[in-house]
Design a protein that fits this description.
Blueprint: H1 2-23, H2 27-39, H3 49-59, H4 61-64, H5 72-91, H6 100-128, H7 130-135, H8 144-168, E1 174-176, E2 179-182, E3 185-188, H9 196-213, H10 217-225, H11 227-248, H12 257-261, H13 263-292
Antiparallel strand pairs: 1-2, 2-3
Helix pairs in contact: 1-6, 5-6, 8-11, 9-10, 9-11, 9-13, 11-13
Length: 299
């Protein structure tokens, strides 16, 4: 057991050295990726992803590293693919095409690190660590075209729901595109109001909760897919609430702290909606497990 423990420590050290060796030559690109993450609200999660992935591996370490064996061929293949992708991206028109180069560079890092994991721990460990390794894909910034389309759908959905909520509360409202006119004020559900940041945060939350608390694939998928409609519901509630508060309490609600810094409050609303759904899915899994357990005959 001691020899195995020493071997595993050496594998950890080798993987750590591999990660550092991959970071050093790509430092400028990684710095650009971190800067992009800090500047773009749609990518603010990127810097946290590697640490969350590492934490997931640590939590599941006994299962993952139980049969660690090197797999050089798939490991080298993935690592070389990552290096080739990075080299191709740096020499192509991607470098001048919005954030496409950063997306390619982040993907190359994921391939490099996954290849290094295979080199140090092997196929079996990688299969056990498939979720933490695939979770690294969230490091990749959404390409501008996909990001723009996603924001548009969020704007449209949030405007639709806000319009319905105004109607439900008996507030006279006129809609023109992304503009909603209520007595005394006209608001625009602009790109900044789309809720893209909280949508991604909800998606990541649903992804982690499904992995940690659910067992069956279809229930995991169902729970993860809730993120997008829930983000629209949460954002519609936020828009309607702030507008009604500005009408009946204080006009400053549309420009105050709750508008600019209160996203976390409405994010909590989303979590409150999610909690009973997750609990219901867990209970249904427990019920299925009991019904599948064969009865023991007496006598």
């Amino acid at each position: 057991m001691s020899n195995w423990g020493d071997t595993l420590v050496k594998r950890h050290a080798a993987f750590g050295a591999f990660v550092v060796a991959s970071i050093i030559p790509l430092w400028k690109t990684i710095h650009a990726l971190v800067s992009y993450s800090m500047e773009q609200e749609s990518s603010s999660h990127i810097v946290l992803i590697p640490f969350v992935s590492l934490a997931l591996i640590y939590v599941e370490r006994e299962k993952i590293f139980r049969t660690a064996r090197s797999s050089p061929i798939p490991g080298l293949t993935l690592a070389l693919a990552g290096a080739a992708l990075y080299g191709l991206g740096g020499r192509s028109s991607w470098a001048a095409g919005g954030n496409s180069f950063l997306s390619a560079a982040a993907l190359s890092l994921v391939l490099l690190w996954t290849g290094g994991f295979l080199l140090c721990y092997g196929n079996q460990a990688a299969r056990c660590a498939i979720f933490p390794l695939m979770f690294l894909l969230l490091m990749i910034p959404l390409p501008d075209a996909i990001l723009g389309r996603t924001i548009y759908l969020l704007q449209e959905g949030s405007t639709d729901l806000s319009y319905l909520l105004f109607k439900a509360t008996g507030t006279p409202v006129l809609r023109q595109g992304f503009f909603l006119s209520v007595p005394g004020v006209t608001i625009e559900v602009a790109q900044e109001c789309s809720g893209i940041r909280s949508t991604i945060a909800l998606f990541i939350t649903c992804l982690l909760a499904a992995h940690l608390f659910l067992k069956t694939s279809w229930r995991k998928l169902y729970f993860i897919l809730l993120a997008f409609p829930l983000a629209i519901i949460k954002n519609g509630i936020r828009i309607t609430t702030l507008t009604l508060l500005s009408l009946y309490v204080d006009p400053g609600f549309l420009t105050g702290k709750l508008h600019h810094e209160g996203g976390f409050v409405f994010f909590l609303v989303g979590l409150i909606i999610l909690a009973p759904v997750l609990l219901m899915l867990q209970r249904s899994e427990s019920h299925d497990g009991r019904s599948e357990t064969p009865a023991v005959a007496e006598g």
